[in-house]
Amino acid sequence: MEFLDIYNGKGQYVGKKERELVHKDGDWHKTFHCWIIFKDENGNDCVILQKRSENKKSWAGFVDISAAGHLESGETMEDGLRELEEELGVKVEFNKLIDTGIRVCIEEFKEGTINHEFQNVFFLIDSRDIRDYKLQGEELSGILCVKIDDLLSLFSNEINEIISMGLIMDSYGNKVEGSYQITREKFIPTLDNYYYKVMILAKRILRNEKHFHI
Q1: pTM over cut 0.85
Q2: Positive or negative CA dihedral for 24, 11, 102, 190?
């Protein structure tokens, strides 16, 4: 049984509760988000996205953040690093992450789920080859390397789809390199154009600009 720390609307700790009840009752809780970004050999700004496992309880098979997860009761934000290691095999010191603050998320797109999250959003600049990632089959079924400019065009409705290269897990657990079609409908729905804003932030970070916040 997994417990999460819960908070009031001011971000003040008020106790802990079983995870399923937190999402049923709409209690505020904390999550860790990390977006992996880099410039490729041709100078294109790129981001690593994950394709969620088809066995996930929520949003199975959807395209999502590079790595993310809930903070369990008693954990600190640094404990969120386990998501990078468990899902992608990335070991990194916490001070290598770029902190862009807290996104306040209210999401009720699935019946019976009231998701109120304080999402701590980080970026990691890491240019390793996509084939060097280790994929954790329980959490994700693949990863995609996508040009940020293509995603900006997608989220601004200039184009309707992207064909991206990636690694997809086959039924035997092997990583298979190939192409993958991405549309807006394959992303988890948001009210605040979260993915679009993240791509704008990513470009600013990769240009070494200052003053960025989610």
Answers
A1: yes
A2: positive
